[in-house]
């Protein structure tokens, strides 16, 4: 069983623009390694549909990523302290 891949809207737009140029779903699918039925689904949405969605979410991911970075920095700090305690501070020279 194949795992479902998540493609970026930017990639989908690139594939659809290539499809417009060559006019063949089979050739486009082969070129990008995407199943033809997936391309047909993207074709129904169209470049404009993905472009609108891509533009409307341009700022949100940055804020989400910054929030995630802060969370990971806090977790990293806690793990460093735990490692120091676990290693009795003497062996924590590499942390």
Protein described:
With 95 residues, the protein is an all-alpha fold. The chain folds into 2 domains: 1-58, Arc Repressor Mutant, subunit A (Orthogonal Bundle); 59-95. The chain has helices at residues 9-22, 25-32, 36-56, 60-86. α1 packs across α2.
CATH topology label of the largest domain: Arc Repressor Mutant, subunit A
Derived from helix and strand composition plus strand pairing, the structural class reads mainly alpha
Low-pLDDT segments:
none
CATH-defined architecture of the largest domain: Orthogonal Bundle
List keywords for this structure.
Arc Repressor Mutant, subunit A, 4 helices, elongated, about 75% helix, 2 domains, mainly alpha
Question: Which helices and strands appear, and what pairs or packs with what?
Answer:
Elements: H1 9-22, H2 25-32, H3 36-56, H4 60-86
Helix pairs in contact: 1-2, 1-3
In short:
With 95 residues, this protein is mainly α. Helix content is 74%, strand content 0%. It folds into 2 domains: 1-58, Arc Repressor Mutant, subunit A (Orthogonal Bundle), CATH 1.10.10; 59-95.
């Amino acid at each position: 069983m194949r795992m479902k891949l998540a493609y970026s809207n930017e990639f989908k737009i690139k594939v659809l623009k290539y499809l417009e140029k060559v006019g063949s779903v089979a050739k486009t699918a082969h070129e990008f390694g995407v199943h033809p039925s997936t391309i047909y689904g993207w074709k129904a949405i169209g470049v404009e549909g993905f472009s609108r969605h891509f533009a409307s979410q341009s700022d949100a991911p940055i804020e989400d990523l910054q929030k995630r970075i802060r969370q990971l920095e806090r977790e990293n700090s806690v793990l460093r302290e735990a490692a120091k305690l676990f290693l009795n501070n003497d062996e924590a020279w590499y942390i």
